[in-house]
Design goal:
Helix content is 45%, strand content 11%. The protein is of the alpha/beta class and 323 residues long.
C-alpha cells in the first residue's frame, strides 16, 4: 500500500529546528542528536528549517565545547578550555536574526541542555568550573525574546503527551492566524478567527477566553494593526498554558449543549457517560470527542462544526489518543 503523507509538501508549516536534531553532524564532537519523531512523524506536517547557531558564528566541527559561565541573569558563552573564546554576543545576534528574518516560522524545536539552543535548565557554571545555576541558551533566549509569539519546545519534552499536544496545537493555531488574518488583515477576519478559536482557547484558559472576548467587543475603536497585535499576543500567551482535564470537560459540556435539542435522551445519556469517564481518567480525550463529532456531523450547526477545538491538528498524529 502506498503511504500518503499527512500534509502535501506545499502545505507543510515552516518550523525552525536545531540542525543536530535533523541528523546533521554539527555537534562539537562531530556527532548529531537525530530525532526519529521529528524526522519520521512531524516532517509530514512541518517544513523544517534546520539551523545550528554555533556553526553560524564560525565555530567549526569538531570544536572546543562552550558552556554558560558567570551571572545566572546574564551568563556568558565561553570555551570550556579557552575562556578567552566568548561567543555570547554572536549567538545572541543569531537569535535576533532568525526571529526577525524568518517571520513565516510558526514554531521552533530546540535541543535540550545546549548553551546556545537549550530552552530551559541549561547549566550555568561559576568561573571556577563548578555548576552554579540553570538558565536558557543564548541563542534560544534571544529567539524567544525577539519573537514572543513563536511556540518553542525542546525535542526531549515532546515525549510528554500533554506537552507534545500543547506545542503542536500552538503551531497550527499560529499558522491559521498567519493564513486567515495576517494574509488579508481586517476586523472581520480577526473576529472570525476568534469565533472559530473560542473553545480551543477556553480549553487552555477560561480567563483568556473571557478577556479576549471583552477585548474584541471594543477592538473596532483601535487601529486594526494594534487590535491584531494585542489580540494575537494575548491569544498565544494564554494558549501556552496546558489544557487540563477539567478544562476539556468544561468545553465538551459546552459543545454538547449545541446538541441538546437535536438528540434523544439515550444519545444524550451516552455522551454524558463518556464525558464522565474521561473526567475520571478512564478513557482518553479522543473517545468523547469521536462520539461528539459523530453527532455534530449529523446535527451540529455550521458554527459549532467550524470550531478549531474539534480538529486543531491532523488526526493522523494521534495526539489526543494519549491525553
Amino acid at each position: 500500500m502506498q503511504h500518503t503523507s499527512i500534509l502535501p509538501p506545499d502545505q507543510r508549516i515552516p518550523v525552525g529546528i536545531s540542525a543536530c536534531l535533523m541528523g546533521q553532524e554539527v555537534r562539537y564532537n562531530g556527532g548529531h542528536k537525530r530525532s526519529r519523531y521529528c524526522l519520521q512523524v512531524l516532517s509530514e506536517c512541518f517544513d523544517f528549517r534546520p539551523f545550528c547557531p554555533e556553526l553560524a558564528v564560525g565555530l567549526g566541527v569538531p570544536r572546543e565545547p562552550i558552556r554558560l559561565v558567570g551571572d545566572p541573569e546574564a551568563p556568558r558563552a565561553r570555551g570550556t578550555e579557552n575562556p578567552e573564546l566568548d561567543v555570547t554576543e554572536a549567538l545572541a545576534e543569531k537569535g535576533r536574526q532568525v526571529a526577525s528574518r524568518m517571520p513565516d516560522l510558526c514554531g521552533y524545536i530546540l535541543i535540550k541542555g545546549s548553551p546556545s539552543c537549550g530552552m530551559e535548565r541549561v547549566k550555568i557554571y561559576h568561573e571556577n568550573g563548578i555548576p552554579n545555576a540553570a538558565g536558557r541558551g543564548i541563542f534560544a533566549a534571544e529567539l524567544m525574546k525577539t519573537n514572543p509569539l513563536l511556540p518553542v519546545e525542546e525535542e526531549g519534552r515532546l515525549h510528554d503527551a500533554v506537552l507534545r499536544e500543547n506545542f503542536i496545537t500552538r503551531v497550527f493555531a499560529l499558522h491559521r492566524w498567519k493564513r486567515e488574518v495576517e494574509a488579508e488583515p481586517s476586523y472581520h477576519a480577526l473576529i472570525q478567527y476568534h469565533s472559530r478559536s473560542k473553545y480551543l482557547l477556553m480549553a487552555h484558559s477560561y480567563q483568556g477566553y473571557r478577556e479576549l472576548g471583552r477585548f474584541l467587543a471594543q477592538a473596532h475603536d483601535l487601529p486594526l494593526e494594534e487590535a491584531m497585535t494585542t489580540y494575537i499576543s494575548g491569544f498565544m500567551s494564554h494558549m501556552s498554558r496546558r489544557a487540563k482535564r477539567r478544562n476539556h470537560v468544561n468545553v465538551l459540556m459546552h459543545v454538547l449543549g449545541y446538541l441538546k435539542k437535536s438528540i434523544d435522551g439515550d444519545c444524550k445519556r451516552e455522551l454524558l457517560e463518556v464525558i464522565e469517564r474521561y473526567r475520571r481518567a478512564e478513557v482518553n480525550l479522543v473517545v468523547p470527542l469521536t462520539l461528539l463529532q459523530h453527532y455534530l456531523n449529523r446535527f451540529g450547526s455550521d458554527y459549532i462544526r467550524s470550531q478549531s477545538y474539534l480538529d486543531p491538528h491532523p488526526y493522523q498524529l494521534g495526539l489526543r489518543n494519549d491525553i
